[in-house]
Design brief:
Structural class: alpha/beta
Strand content: 15-25%
Radius of gyration: 39 Å
Helix content: 40-55%
Number of domains: 4
Shape: elongated
Largest sheet: 6 strands, mixed
CATH architecture of the largest domain: Alpha-Beta Complex
CATH superfamily of the largest domain: inorganic pyrophosphatase (n-terminal core)
CATH class of the largest domain: Alpha Beta
Number of helices: 24
Amino acid sequence: MKKTPIKILRSIDILTSLSTFELNSLYTHMKIEEYKKGHVLFNEGDAGELMYIVLSGAVSIAVNTPDGKVLEIAEITKGNFFGEMSIFDSAARSATCSSKIDTKVLSLGASDFYEFIKNNPIAGSSIMHKMLTITTRRLQDTGAFLSDMVTWGEQARTRAITDDFTGLYNRRFLDEVIENRISESISNGNSLSFIMIDLDHFGTLNNEYGQEVGDKVILSVVKVFRELFSKDDILARYGGDEFTFILPQTSGAKAWDICSKLIRKLRKIDLLDNLEGTLNKVTASIGIACVPDHTSSVGELRQLADKALYQAKEAGRDTVVLWGSEKVESAAKSRIPSFGRRNRIISNILNALVTREGFLVMGHKNPDEDCVSSMIAISLLLNKFAKTVYLLIPGKINENYQYLLNICRYNAIELIKNDKPVPSGISTVFFMDTPKPDMREFFPDSGRIYNNKDILKIEIDHHLEADSGYIGDKDYCLVDEASSASELVGLMAFKLKNKEELIESYNIQDLFSRNFVLAVLTGIIGDSKMGKYLKTRREKWFYSLFSSMFNEMLTKKTHKHSKNFSTMNEVFTELQQMSQQEDECFSLMMEQKINISSKIGTVIVNKDISNQMVLHYGHETIVSVARYAADSLAEYSQLLSLVVYHDDNEESNLIQFRIRRSHTYKVFDLRSILEAFEIKNGGGHPGAIGFRIPEFEIPDLPEYVRTLVTGIEKLMTEIL
């Protein structure tokens, strides 16, 4: 029976240790060649490109002697190899080879052999060891050849199983030895730790500083590895900035201790200290899983270590996580690792805005412009959903910031000084622009709020310094690289803008109101010193965008020319002017109150007065004040309010209707009004609705309002 090529290969001495899979893999790189007796395969001095294995026949290896004679130094028969120096080195042939009889051989190119070694490092190492032993014995009389060949052979073996750049083991080697190491650990009753390491933001580092700096960082990191780990540990570069280690006879706790030291030493690498860029520290995220504590399966061990690594990244990076353990070594706040992660956090926060009630908004002790501005901005977003919002402020606050706080008066945002207790019913706390927990604002019952796990803690901050620390709940920390916390609130607003169904259902018409835009812009201006310290393209884009938005608003009828702010005093002057305008607008609007119903406080602003208000105060101010007027009237009547006014003629021909209910009157879902009157162009939620009707459909506005109020009173009676 004729032998198959694989059976033939299995009978060859240097290949006996290979598995069937490895033999098949090797065979795909080989070529069968047949030669008649006397055929010269190569001559002494020829370039060496192939090695050969004799399948049948015999080959003569001969050299030229100094006196011009030909000396046969070896006969290669079935199952043996020759021409191996083309594998060890690309030097010229050192002998002449010819077939002594009809001969069949397998040829293998050097590049093909190294491709096989790359994919099968242990098998390749075994082949080379056997070749080396045989060649050493064969050429023991030719010392000049022997020394060079042995040295190069050892170097080739090293290259087969190590990463050229770092000198650590390579991925293929680690993948092949891990199963044996686990089996040994289980058989001997020892622990084994499996560690996965990713350098943080390495792609950004390369982009900002260049590959040369990136390479220096890798080598510095590897130097730290070698200092901390033992010679028995298997340290492998898994690819790029990813490393995987096997620590035999090492418990998870011990591995965690070593890795905790590791991330502390990595932070001390000073290569980035004096470079201009967003990264100035070398940090890593590390996940650990163990045998036998967690699993005895190779696949599951990898999965658990990978999950621990993911947890380390989720915890803010620069972190070590031991799977299934409370052991977490974490340092400073860090940028959010991906767009997807940031979008999920923003989505979580926006969902909290919609579904939760009772919000407390606070900043840090001695708040600056950005802290106060971001508090105002997030409160205005909450106001869009008619939420109860309390703003916690210090007893004494910079006089300039009073103008910011004046925005609260007409937007249903209640101010609470830090020496007063917080009202009950708080479900959610926003921590704004606060670098670490010990900088939080404190107040009489702060412990009750901070320690209550049922109260959701949301954090919005841009401080990523080494001594910073997270305050908010997991998956609710919008902590990222930005010019200011206000910029991050602006980012949230743009994400909210894309949720069209939500915008429509809550009847949000002025998401980017003048107050909101100016609050965000003030925070960006304050922290960036009028844009001088903006770093990234995104920061510059936000600054330009909100500046443009507000300057455009300033060109409305209340301001005849565009105005670019050059100092913070100009910003505060503008805020003060807005505050005075809102006071005047509110007084004028409340003068239009009419007595139609004792249950429903009602204001009707006719077209002439609406046009006058638009001319003097602007559309944005009217919208803000109308909301505040509706809130005030509802609380005064203890039931409902109705505020009616005309849109700016240049914007539309619509009449706006806003209906609010008192916080104590919760039995009436205001959305039933829209259904009862078959109103299509409107929306809202149980406590507040708004709708719009074209002027031409209401020839007599006071009469229409009386009919509307009578119908609403009837609905209220039916509920009772």
